[in-house]
Design a protein that fits this description.
The complex is a heterodimer of chains A (202) and B (119). Chain A is an alpha+beta fold and 202 residues long. Chain A has a domain of 56 residues. Helix content of chain A is 21%, strand content 35%. Chain A has a 4-stranded antiparallel β-sheet with strand order 1-2-3-4. In chain A, strands 8-7-10-11 form a 4-stranded antiparallel β-sheet, with no helix packed on it. In chain B, a hairpin with a 4-residue loop joins strand 4 and strand 5. Classes of the chains: A alpha+beta (202), B alpha+beta (119). Chains A and B meet through helix 1, helix 3, strand 4 and strand 5 of A and helix 1, strand 3, strand 4, strand 5 and strand 6 of B.
């Protein structure tokens, strides 16, 4: 009996999820932007395609506050509401990417994205962008060989421009938050492991 | 009890991932071509889901339940663009060439992952 009830509630939950995804109920998503859904689950509440996370959070890319420009030419802007902050990338007038996170995810260090390109026709660029927890003034990018690079936090966001790690060479392993006293205020990982910066193209 | 819980969680994961992928068929009306792919569990040791073919994709996104390391990729023999994120990733490629779309699970554990790409 309990199992039947469980299956029934599961089916209802699934039907609701699918219905929300299919109808792209933006108003529902905006009203629920403070929920504890993961980024993927939050995105699934609206129709797929560019600006999906923004739409799921009731935000509009055209209202982004400009922050900085990456070495690949992309501009990065900031959008936020009461529950969520988003970094929005654009190239000229064209939308070029997004990364949204709630306060708890930012505090956990789960508001960092890594972009890289490593095809024969590319320039081997790598960009790391992210949102830092409240009170953090700088970020150190730690390398597997013990070296580090620092960058300031600007309006809660940071960036590192660089190149993809070469095979067998040092690679970024994580970041350290720098507090107002210049000391380490915490650490966070990166959403990529050392040998997975450049995915195979075959 | 734990078996029941596991069963429910697995089912819910599949539902959410299915939602991620199923919506795809209704989207992209303004684009030339769009494709949802995956929507099932893949291992976390860099296993991936992939588009059915190469197209002039300019956009690729991936999503999952939880916040596993995901990597979105658009590639062909000359170009290889990747973006990494937690539980969601998206990627743009402006080259206009035929490229394949993939989403990798790099979390170390199995997750249901859905992908969507459009031209």
């Amino acid at each position: 009996m309990m199992t039947m009830g469980s299956h029934k509630s599961l089916l209802v939950a699934g039907a609701v999820a699918i219905a929300l995804a299919v109808t792209g109920a933006g108003a529902y998503a905006a009203a629920n932007s403070g929920s504890d859904r993961s980024p993927g689950e939050q995105a699934a509440t609206v129709a797929p395609g560019p600006e999906r996370q923004l739409r799921a959070n009731g935000l509009n890319a055209s209202e982004a506050q400009p922050l900085f420009t990456l070495a690949n030419g992309e501009s990065v802007g900031l959008l936020s509401n009461a529950a969520t902050k988003c970094l929005v990338r654009s190239l000229g007038s064209r939308f070029a990417g997004e990364m949204c996170a709630r306060t708890a995810e930012i505090a956990e260090g789960h508001a960092t994205s890594v972009g890289d390109e490593c095809g024969p026709a590319g320039k081997n660029r790598m960009e790391i962008t992210g949102l830092a927890p409240e009170g953090v003034l700088g970020v150190r990018l730690i390398s597997s060989d013990g070296a580090s690079r620092s960058t300031p936090v600007f309006n809660g966001a940071f960036k590192f421009d660089g190149t993809n790690p070469v095979a067998g060479g040092p690679y970024p392993t994580g970041i350290e938050w720098v507090g107002s006293d210049g000391g380490t205020a915490g650490t966070a990982g990166l959403p990529v492991q050392g040998d997975q910066f450049c995915e195979p193209a075959s | 009890m734990s078996k029941l819980l596991r069963s429910r969680l697995t089912g819910l994961c599949i539902c959410v991932a299915a939602a991620f992928v199923l919506a795809l068929s209704t989207a992209g009306g303004a684009s030339g071509f769009s494709e949802g792919y995956g929507g099932y569990g893949i291992c976390g040791s860099n296993c991936y889901i992939q588009s059915g073919g190469a197209h002039t994709f300019y956009f690729n996104e991936g999503g999952s339940t939880g916040s596993p390391y995901l990597a979105c990729q658009l590639f062909n023999g000359a170009h290889n663009e990747v973006s990494h994120g937690y539980g969601y990733c998206d990627l743009f490629y402006g080259g206009g060439e035929y490229v394949w779309a993939r989403v990798y699970n790099q979390s170390g554990s199995t997750h249901v992952v859905g992908g969507y790409a459009e031209t």
